[in-house]
Amino acid sequence: MLPVVSPTRVSQTRVSLPARLLRGIRPCLSGLCLSTALAATVVQPLGAQTVDEDAMDVQSQGLNLPKDLTVFGKSDPNVRKATAIVNGRIITGTDVDQRLALIITANGGKVSEEERERLRVQVLRNLIDETLEIQEAAANDIKISPEEVNQSYERVAGNFRRSPAQFDEYLRSQGSSAASIKRQIEGELAWSRLQRRNIQPFVNVSEEEVKAVVDRLNAAKGSDEFRLGEIYLSATPENREQIIANARNIIEQIRKGGSFQAYARQFSEASTAAVGGDLGWIRPAQLPAELAQAATEMQVGQIAGPIETVGGVSILYVIDKRKVLTADPRDSLLSLKQLSVLFPQGTTKEQASAKAASFAAAVKEIKGCGQANEIGARVGADVVDNDNVKVRDLPPQLQDILINLQVGETTPPFGSITDGVRVLVVCGRDDPQSAGAPNAEQIQAQLEEERVNKRARIYLRDLRRDAVIEYN
């Protein structure tokens, strides 16, 4: 049985077509996501070392290395200061510190010193890739204008409900800067534009491939599908134990309140890192056997791992669950009346319980929404109308209750001493239509995107291989 824990709730901000697992790299245009790979940090003992001839078989890999190998000197490639020069472009310690501050802020500032140092190494790798992407775009005469960067920056500031000037001040207060985010935005825009020019025109998806996807969806109608989040870490036999330890540490950080999405953006090596690890809606048959088994055994809101799979390990999170091409009752739109009673400051638990019991007895008399206002006035409750409320947008506990309520019925009272006690009355319900398969254009676009992502990963790998990188 796989270890399962419950993470902090992850906001459901994206619903996509059924997706396949990808092992690529894709930028995001939010200006706040990281998507480079996590490599193992294995510190070797200092001094001369001997390697057992059975410990490594590299001849089959095309490397002409001696079997009796001795390493001289004390150089440790994993112990570096957080600065580098990438093809002549300097990445300073300040660059790393400011980008690291964004990640720590995204995790609520609750990051141990050990975790901070590991994140610092990861940030340096991200900045190196970002620099390579900008340089390659420039070599292909792709320039991102300051106006474009500022427009994207303004949208990012808007996501934080701040003006650009206010967002500048906020970033400074967190130990970061506008320049750091703008540099990341420039890299994401440049890399995206480079893919559209050098990769996308050479990717084709046939009508037969699209039809095959539609046929598989229709054949699977009524079976379970899951909206999953994944953090994928590649591993080799040599670093497998270290990668598993890294995965366990990530799970522990999430269990302590860390954001699954933030860790996916920082560490996952799948292309979905850019969207917080969200694989979209996917059927178990589309997953490797190990992940499929885990998904079918998990409930919504649970996380499992590390799960060993081909080439590495995965951490899996079940965001949501539904039936393929079948109407989901959680997509129903409800018209609701909310009756709420607040508790005065200083109310004790006993006093609140007594008032809640009196309120519960009163609302039992409600026979339809027509009586809600009258009874609300009698008990001194505030009454608010809420139309077009989608069931799935409500807390999970209320979803299960409201799905089974008829028009005119009320929920049990719920709340807290701080927020008061309240009930919801169902005044109307619009049930969802039967779900249909995505259209051909949507499927074709998704298949093309997958292939572009795979080629982009190879492209970036080649850039790393050819780069001249000096570490200080």
UniProtKB/TrEMBL annotation:
Record flagged with keyword Isomerase: yes
InterPro entries linked: OMP_Chaperone_SurA, PPIase_dom_sf, PPIase_PpiC, SurA_N, Trigger_fact/SurA_dom_sf
SUPFAM superfamilies the record matches: FKBP-like, Triger factor/SurA peptide-binding domain-like
Record domain PpiC: where: 223-320
Keyword flag Electron transport: no
A Pfam family annotated for this UniProt entry: Rotamase
A single MF term (Gene Ontology): peptidyl-prolyl cis-trans isomerase activity
Signal sequence extent: 1-39
Keywords: Chaperone, Isomerase, Periplasm, Rotamase, Signal
Name of the protein in its database record: Parvulin-like PPIase
Organism: Sphingobium olei
Lineage: Bacteria, Pseudomonadati, Pseudomonadota, Alphaproteobacteria, Sphingomonadales
